[in-house]
Amino acid sequence: MKTAVDKQVHYQKPKKKLRLSRILLHFALIVGSLVMAGPFIWMGLSSLKSFEQMFAIPPEFIPSPVMWSNFTDSLQAMPFGRAYWNSFYISTIVVVSQVVTCSMAAYAFAKLKFPGSKVLFIAFLATMMVPMQVTLIPLYLIMDGLGWVNTHLSIIVPNALFNAFGVFLLRQFMLGIPKEMEEAAVIDGANPAFIYLRIMVPLIKPALAAFGIFSFIGIWNNFIQPLTFLSDTDLFTVPLMLAMFKGLYVTQWPLLMAGATISVVPVLIVYFFAQRQIIEGIALTGVKG
């Protein structure tokens, strides 16, 4: 017969194993975080170095002296204020438009039954497998025919009206909402528009927030479309303005790193304050009845 001491020892062994596994898990997560944050740390440190320090052998990780003037020189060398405004208002318009259009399309695919809905949804998702570079030239010809080349409309309108990933994400979230809620609203005389605005939209707020953040980051970092459609410096966005630091023979790497550090600040702020919504929007599959 086991004594109380033997039982205590017996129950302590799993706890020790559990603690060891947690320590190993946290160690792996810390190492992975450092690996992922390594390029950002290097970018931030390089933005405070001189040109000679960046290419010193052996490498100098800590800048000495600290070149705070790189940030002011970077802002003065290029019209970054205008580029920031262009990226901000373009991203805002596109995000708001995508949230509206994608949520409406997701509601139609998830809750409204119409002929060919499944085939149309599969064809819609198939567009995600087509690289953007394939459609860039046809899109340029369309924008040129509309007279939108070298205007922000060539970046805003195509992105605002179509996002297959957003439709897929929101549709999967809506499929998890119980049908009973929709049926109860129909019995009370609600139409599809009322159900979408008053029932679906409030219930999918985590998914909308997550999608809006992903959309903002994608549009803010968009480079190839502004490079293709824009030619006037006053219309440049932040990623395109950063590319101006790269010259044919000489690249001002300290100024480029300083400008890149400034450009990621809005993205980091958005992610820092909305990381909970990102996790909820991706992890949750809907409302359980």
TrEMBL record:
Domain of life: Bacteria
Presence of the UniProt keyword Cell division in the record: no
Membrane topology recorded in Swiss-Prot or TrEMBL: Multi-pass membrane protein
Transmembrane segments: 23-45, 88-110, 119-143, 155-174, 195-220, 253-274
Residue ranges of every copy of the ABC transmembrane type-1 domain listed in the record: 84-274
Keyword annotations: Cell membrane, Membrane, Sugar transport, Transmembrane, Transmembrane helix, Transport
Pfam families in the cross-refs: BPD_transp_1
Family that this chain belongs to: Belongs to the binding-protein-dependent transport system permease family.
UniProt protein name: Multiple sugar transport system permease protein
Naturally occurring in which organism (per UniProt): Shouchella xiaoxiensis
